[in-house]
Amino acid sequence: MSKKQVLMAFKKRGLSISPAALNAVLNLLSYSSSSNDDQHENTKDDTSMLNSLLDEIKIRLMESSNPSLVVSRELLEQVVAGMTRDANDVMEEAMQLLDLNNGVPKLHYDIMKKRFSLVAPGSGRQGGETPAGSGGLFGEAEDKVDMFLQRYALIYQRLMRQENFRPKLTSGVSYHPDISADDNDDDDYDGYNRSQDEHVKITPLEGLLGSKGTKILLGMIVQVEEGQYYLEDPTAQIPMDLSRIEFRSSGFITENSICLVEGETQDGILVVAKIGQPIYETRHDAIQAIGLQNSDLFGAIPTLSEYSKLQEEEIKHGQDAMFVLLSDVYLDDPVVMTRLEKLFDGFQDYDPLPVFVFMGDFASRYPSAAESNANEIITGYFDDLANVICKTPKIATKGKFILVPGQNDPGIGGIMPRSQIPDYFTSGLRSKVKNVHLVSNPCRLRFFSQEIVICRLDVLSKLRRDCLVDPPPLSMGESGKSQDSQKQQKLENTNPLVQHAIQTILNQGHLCPVPLSSLPIYWNYDHLLRLYPPPDAIILGDKTAEAYFETYNDCDVMNPGAFHTDGSFLAFSPVDMSSGTRKADCEFSQIE
Predict the structure, then answer these.
(1) Percent helix, strand and coil across the chain, each to the nearest 5
(2) Which of 66, 110, 117, 245 is the most buried (most CB within 10 A)?
(3) Rg of the chain over CA atoms, in angstroms?
(4) Would you write out the chain's pLDDT as a tens digit for each of its 592 residues?
(5) What is the largest CA-CA distance in the chain?
(6) Contact 329, 360 (CB under 8 A)
(7) What are phi and psi of 325, to 5 degrees?
(8) Burial class (CB in 10 A: 0-12, 13-18, 19+), 162
């Protein structure tokens, strides 16, 4: 096809084309024609390709906020890239990782202005008095205050949007904060019976001064003095008497957790009669309230139309995707290395290959820093992993690996969020295996439109150790949700304490709402542990609990179990359309 014919085709569509773009179009048509010797067929193919190219250019220009009638080379390259994109390209673009190293934006709620904003990492605080993170990794005193204020503010705003807490013409209902996941009916699961015109009034703690009668409060449990717990909100604090509790909701009540409390003040002490977790808000409702722009931490979904496109591609291309989840992969254990070899051998024929998520600890025992060859020994562990992976060349060249460190792995451990495993120890692994992602603990993964949180933390043991009020008993397998047979069979054996733990972290909107003495946290980066808006799925490596897959309201929570004990792992599929609707699926497996 001649230059004149191409120019005429663009002119018929009302477009002009730059000289650089014109040469690129001619080269593209020439390359396409060179594979066919039939001149007549070449002309038909060139015309068809040019028309398809023009159609796509028109669509791009219509979607552009500042359309131009002159087609540039840059626009042409974008169009050609989009037209030649295959399933592998789509899957590559579908995944995006965010962690401590590349920065996770912080969702900020201004309780006075009742407004959300997304604060970029390293930018100033609201009001601009002090740059966020100006104190470095450890932060300043103001960062600690802001950490707890934001935890409270995010729960308070979501509670005030609940129908039960909106002001009505009359009030005075008694609240029973029972928010177990067993009831999805709005009139039951919020924990009390009410008439249509009744609502629950939250009293600020400063309003208790001089008042009498039973009040409903929202506050954080703190220990101001040894053995004495207080309820605290932004206005005041008051000592609590937890010995006369008549009712408590499911979930663990711990120090630093934010609770709904019903009680009466006697001699300056709040005598608690009822205590419970805040009401959960679904991801859909949370995003509607916050706005897509402020809830998209990845910056990948700017508009609702883009969100719809991602969901369409998710259904079209995401059904074959799989994540193979392993926790406590002891690389110094020969039995574990043999199991890994069998694992890779079993998955090497999959197309596409699964994404392998390995969570620490990566050794049963690390050498002491005093040992002269400690670094070489640790490096050798990851070199051994590389050698095992390279036994299956397809996985070594095309497979994707995400390595999440445990609390005892090399680096600064014991404080969350935990930074990635230092590059020094994994240089051999990264040189032999093409796609290895070293991430912090926790980290976030975008898979098309879904958000997945990955964390290696013994949450159950920490919540049990710091629990102040024993949770009510749950029957085994009690979950209040519909599951297919395999998952339901697994749930029937799920420890009720696990269900309490799942409800706690999602109702609290935090991965581990325990005191800082139990789990130190970098004040500047507490938002990495927050679970608001709730993610679509949480991958939690917890060696103190058995393997499980639970769905709490709209959030899937799973634990693959400890790989080093019995070779257990979990194959997780974020998109399963077998039932006709989009949902997640999982399969529990073991390698002997």
Answers:
(1) 35, 25, 40
(2) 245
(3) 28
(4) 788 888 888 888 888 888 888 888 888 877 766 655 555 555 666 788 888 888 888 877 777 766 677 888 888 877 777 666 655 566 677 889 999 988 889 999 998 889 999 888 765 554 433 334 444 678 889 999 999 999 999 999 999 988 888 776 444 444 445 434 344 443 333 444 444 456 788 999 999 888 889 999 999 999 998 889 999 999 999 999 999 998 888 999 999 999 999 999 999 999 999 999 999 999 999 999 998 888 888 887 877 777 888 888 888 888 889 999 999 999 999 999 999 999 999 999 998 899 999 999 999 999 988 888 999 999 999 999 999 999 999 999 999 999 999 999 998 878 999 999 999 999 999 999 999 999 999 999 999 989 999 999 999 999 999 999 888 886 444 444 444 444 444 444 578 999 999 999 999 999 999 999 999 999 999 999 999 999 999 999 999 999 999 999 999 999 999 999 999 999 999 988 776 677 889 999 999 8
(5) 99
(6) yes
(7) -110, 125
(8) middle
Q: 96 - beta bridge partners?
A: 446
Query: What are the structure tokens assigned to 466, written together?
Result: 């710091």
User: What is the spatial distance between Cα 523 and Cα 526, in angstroms, rounded to a whole number?
Assistant: 6
Angle between helices 423-432 and 374-389 (to 10 degrees): 20
Identity at 98, one-letter amino acid code = L
Whether residue 515 has a cis bond before it, omega within 30° of 0: no
Q: Which amino acid is at 8?
A: M
Q: 298 to each of 106, 234, 244, how far by Cα in Å? A: 11, 31, 46
Task: Say how far apart CA 275 and CA 263 lie, in whole Å.
Answer: 9
Is there a contact between 348 and 395 (Cβ–Cβ < 8 Å)?
Answer: yes
Place of tokens 């018929």: 12
